[in-house]
Design brief:
It is a single chain. With 165 residues, the chain is an alpha+beta fold. It is built from six helices and four strands, in the order ααβαββαβαα. The radius of gyration is 19 Å and the shape is globular. Bound molecules: nickel (II) ion (NI).
Amino acid sequence: MGDLLRFGVSAEEDLLESFDRLISKRGYPNRSEALRDLMRDSLVQSRIEEQHDKAEVLGSLTLVYDHHAHDLADRMADLQHDNHGLVVSVLHVHISHDDCMEVIVLRGLAGKIRSLADSLLGLKGVKHGKLFVTVPSHSITERAGSSHAHGHTHNKSRRVAVVGK
Ligand code: NI
């Protein structure tokens, strides 16, 4: 374990208040411990995800964003047009005066889907979002790992791909 370093984090007041309520409900002694857990969880997830970028997957990306954010709708549309081969369908809901929700159904290589999701989630004005990834049902039976219809054996990382939660 390395030395402990301190760093400052800025957050909106209401966000911080809500976070404090959550971590007290979960029994964390302080924000630092809760943040460290979140950081570790993100790192573990990213490690798992990197292992099977070549897997064929299905995904749904849900985004909540500020309808008034400058250029955001255009930039979201541009990203989706640039990756039209991955985008199966898009559902748009006007959820309040200010906010929109978009659910984007994706199909393709896991690495490409994650990269598109990261680009969309990283746009300024996107308030919250999450990518859910799953695999076509025929892939689930490949979990046994032995050879099957298309005649090869899947390696370990491929099997991990269907375990993801
Ligand atoms: Ni809308």
